[in-house]
Specification:
alpha+beta; 166 residues; 9 strands; three-stranded antiparallel sheet; six-stranded mixed sheet; 4 helices
Length: 166
């Protein structure tokens, strides 16, 4: 009887513990030797799946999507509509892979074409903000021995990072 009660209690506690926080993170590294950006975009798997299903981009789950070229192209387009990098020109990113983790997060890996960097970089990062009013995003840029971090909120979807001269 105790086991039955504990299972019911556990079930209801899991049902009522929907997360209160919505975050996506991007780690961006500029590789001087290739003049390319390498990006890891980390996002809550079920939050992104819900948005993609609502938009008709996804009909099952993210893991099964990787086997379908048309779906992967649509996913890349959707992600890059909400994550952009520019300097004197726009950075052209391509999705090179993804990994869904047991923690409920999916990492998307991007690489850019060669990209000339001036004295500052402009980042646009409003992924999931159109659906989740609590959504907050963060970027950490690693470049030439320095790191820069910027938050993105509902009212701050674009950030400019001024680069140190080293």
């Amino acid at each position: 009887m105790k086991t039955y009660f504990l299972l019911i209690l556990l079930f209801f506690s899991l049902q009522s513990s929907a997360h209160e926080y919505y975050f996506a993170f991007a780690e961006v590294q500029y590789i001087d030797s290739t003049q390319k950006m390498e990006v890891t975009l980390s996002v809550s798997t079920h939050d992104l799946e819900a948005v993609l299903k609502k938009k008709g981009v996804l009909d099952s789950d993210l893991e099964s999507m990787s086997n379908n070229v048309t779906s992967t192209i649509a996913l890349e387009k959707e992600l890059l509509e909400h994550f952009k990098i520019s300097s004197s020109e726009n950075c052209q990113l391509s999705l090179v892979g993804s990994k869904t983790l047991l923690t409920g997060v999916t990492n998307f890996y991007f690489e850019s074409e060669p990209f000339a960097v001036e004295n500052e970089l402009t980042f646009f990062f409003d992924l999931l903000m159109g659906t989740y009013p609590e959504q907050q995003n963060k970027i950490t840029l690693y470049m030439r021995g320095s790191s820069y971090t910027q938050p993105f909120l509902q009212n701050i979807r674009t950030q400019i990072i001024k680069l140190e001269n080293k």
